[in-house]
Amino acid sequence: MTVFQRDTLDNGLRVLTADLPYAQSVAVMVMLAAGSRYETAESGGIAHFSEHMFFKGTERRPSARQIAGEIDAIGGEFNAFTGKENTTYYVKCAAEHRDVALDVLVDMLRNSRFAEDEIEREKGVIIEEMNMYYDTPRDFIGGVYEELLWGDQPLGREIIGRKETIRDATRDTFLGYLDRWYRPSRMVLGVAGRIGDGLLERAQELLGDLVDAETGEPEPTAPYLNGRVSVSTKQSEQAHVSLGVHSLPLDHPDRYAIQLLATAAGCPRASSPRCASVGGSPTTSTGSTTATPTPARSTRRRAWTSPGSTTR
After folding, report:
1. Catalytic residue among 39, 51, 70, 158
2. Quick check: is 51 catalytic?
3. Which residues of the chain register pLDDT less than 70?
4. Would you call 98 exposed, middle or buried from its count of C-beta atoms within 10 A (0-12, 13-18, 19+)?
5. CB burial class (10 A; 0-12, 13-18, 19+) of residue 136?
């Protein structure tokens, strides 16, 4: 049985480990309690846009190619994804390269340049990503449903943002968002696999001097009543339906029963009905069976060979 251990650095950053001494690899993740729910209407999409920009170069590694090259040199894989409640960056590699993975991740998160020319270039990448998203009904239906459920508040808006907010983003937009939310008390360093020795000491060296600050919390989600049906029409050979009901809060003792119900309601095949989400969220039917906290959708980067792009 895997045993998890949690330690906390002096600045509030949590270190969560799962030591698997028989493994030959290690996964290193930096997870932040900051996602699109933490944006304003004017900065919509900045959490996801920031995720892209962290891969574009640091003071020590000035280009995306150099960052990718270091991970490629150790046979590793790195990626990131943005949700509504969180953002995660990770490296997976052979266990003996743990410290390289840590160094690259921390360098990206602490020393990224956010160069104006890179920001302008990446705007085009994200807008093209938006076009692909809106042109893919099986993905877009999730956004239609969440807008119906939550309305014009952060949980009801798209993680990817709007074209207007992406085009208007400046370096100061990124720095303002990151300065507020990327604080150590909102961070978790997760390491699983053959961890090796000296992890806490190394974490202290790399992250122990991060200054914590009071960040506050996003505005509570208000009840939203907007009818029960939303229809989005597009000329297409496909039709997608999402059906749901409000479910249990994330910490409800019956949440495990809901997850079992989700499994019983379908099977892993693509033709299965889709069931419940936990967390005061809907039970939906779109073609697979899952049980996850809302909001469950996120954006995820592809491999480094296609820097800046994301998949869902």
Report:
1. 51
2. yes
3. 1-2, 266-312
4. buried
5. middle
